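Forwarding the complex inputs:
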Amino acid sequence: MKREDLMRVYEPKEGLEMRVKNVLNSLEEKPVRRMNVRRAAALAACMLMLVTACAGAAGLLFSDEYDAVRLAHRALAEEYGITEEMQTYFAQDVREENGVTTIVFSGMTGLHHVLGEYTVTIRDGDATVSWSKDGESTEGDLEAHAWGARQLEILLEMAKQENGFSRGYHKAQEIRAQMDGDELTVSITKGGDATVVKLDDAQIDQARISVSEKEAIAIAKRAFAQEYGLTQAQLDAMIYEKDYAGYTYAIREGKTICEVWFWLHQDEDVVHADGDGLYWARINAESGVVEEMMYDSALAGNG
Amino acid sequence: MDKEQFARQVTGLQGSLYRVAASYLRGESDRLDAVSEAIARAWEKRYTLRDETLFRTWITRILIRECVNIQRRQKRSVPMEQMPEGEAAKEDERIVSLREAIDQLPQRHRTMVVLHYMEGCDVRETARIMGTTKGAVCAGLARARAALRRMIGEEMDV
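Prediction (whole assembly, two chains):
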């Protein structure tokens, strides 16, 4: 078969030209709004991510939901200095309604009273962030009743020592005793309310799956490199945890997906090296789109 | 990139964008919706395009995501085999059987065929657009060629 024959297979109809022209005419040349960057350090971190993304794996496709999550993480870093590593102390919940995406980062059980909740609202590509403890003092390291980025830095440093996490947790409980109200229980599982139907081997053969497990692993690793700046050595050191969630292929919200999990622990003699933790990606098994992904440094003891 | 430059690039690529959309979506209106939506989104996100020489790769990726979103909304309620009657009758029988064969390929392989054999993207660009590796594209194209050979008894000589 020749190329000209192939081109006729999906030949555009007459309406295309007019439709494209109409869309182009309707585009408005409004200025692009960007978020203000308050912290020079956060800006430097974002620039590093950008450079890594440019140099790394181009061509990955991410779902709209993940794009929103990524924007929310950037907004948290820029506005409050909350880094990816600190995300381990929060559960994340994504809701979308009428074109507005709301992502709530809830401080984990046992720390919720000091960490509070960050709410990121994304509308027309712009993110606004607020913290339930806005206005409260974060002075005084772990003595403060509101723990922001400074306290999370201290917690991370403590957690990197043997049994370090529990010391921070006990400090939070001392503060808890001075405060009113009940402690909120927060599930660390993200998006855990969706129905997932596991596919067995026979069903996998029948399903329209065009992304093999091996390909899903490759896509996930490229996404980790791009999004989290992992080096090739770190990618090579990752341990693939097959069926970590009890399945690899499944139907979730009508989509056939492949979930891949990895552990990274680079040095047996070090409790936690940069980048260590749990990595996870949910890949659309038909299209190869990265539907969702996550890095959990596991420093909050949930790893 | 200003509006005029953007419009020029999009106009030059409209046929290509349509064919990629057609590799995902059966309905004519869905294809046009996907292309329109992708153009609008690309315009909104134009500041994220870091290298203008990658415009085709970039906008095609946006388009693919739109196609996937439309498929998701439809939850594949319209099977690929259901083509409006009358459309096919007017066409060359050979093209019709070729389309039927391509339509039977798995989604990803079909898009690889469109990008590589119809749009002339090399393996690297195809991989970039589809978010996969060159090896996966080579393997996918080989499987697609074998499947088409089985179905229509012809080799690709493009």
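DSSP finds ten helices and ten strands in chain A.
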